[in-house]
Amino acid sequence: MSQDDDRKDDDRKIAALDALIRGARSAVVFTGAGVSTGSGIPDFRSPGGLWSKNRPIDFDDFYSSLEMRREAWRRKFTMDDATRGAAPNAAHRAIARFVREGRASVVVTQNIDGLHEASGVPRDRLIELHGNGTYAACLDCRARHELTEVRAVFEASGDPPDCRVCGGLVKSATISFGQAMPVEAMMRAEAAAREADLFLVLGSSLVVYPAAALPVAAKRAGAALVIANREPTDLDPYADLLLRGDLVEIFGP
Description:
InterPro entries: DHS-like_NAD/FAD-binding_dom, NAD-dep_sirtuin_deacylases, Sirtuin, Ssirtuin_cat_dom
Enzyme class: transferase
Number of strands: 9
Distance between the termini: 26 Å
CATH architecture of the largest domain: 3-Layer(aba) Sandwich
Structural class: alpha/beta
Radius of gyration: 19 Å
Largest sheet: 6 strands, parallel
GO molecular function: histone deacetylase activity, NAD-dependent; metal ion binding; NAD+ binding
CATH class of the largest domain: Alpha Beta
Number of helices: 10
Number of domains: 2
EC number: 2.3.1.286
Active site: 130
């Protein structure tokens, strides 16, 4: 296929995507790392991604070892420094517009960077399956702790602070490997998937379960399934519309 043919095919698919979104009344937008790479947030699984440099620290190791907690916070603040100033990109803004226009009922995200909320998606329309890395929380009483406070103590003493409310362990408010998925968030996401007339997968490799089962649930319930991602996914054969490419380019002006 020639470059002109490729361009025409891309234009046709984008037009088809636009028609599906305009016709939707209860769309669910499901996002992964590919939505935020255009904002300078590195992904995890691709060559050169975060896992190739630092394997994730398992939750049990964080919980049981002070050394692992120190290392987790060291990595956290190093990453925050590297991504400081990241702002919503064209894909985030397009998703926020879908919600604002009433096309999308909810945004379900695997991302922890807070950029959906920063783009204008209301908190009550946002389901963060893997938590939020813009603040910390006590593992016991769930009291919120701001990262500036945690960092000040960590840099002064070398140790992260205990919870100021109950004395429990304070951790970034994200879901680590080995940590239970948030039950309420998963229940909300599953219910939204079953009620959707359109399920948009944007920038997810669809390999992390149980989140990756949501598109299947939506499809079985009768929703049209769209997958837009740089790389192939295992669910591509089930998609009603498949787009390959950079999401900032797909949703940009």
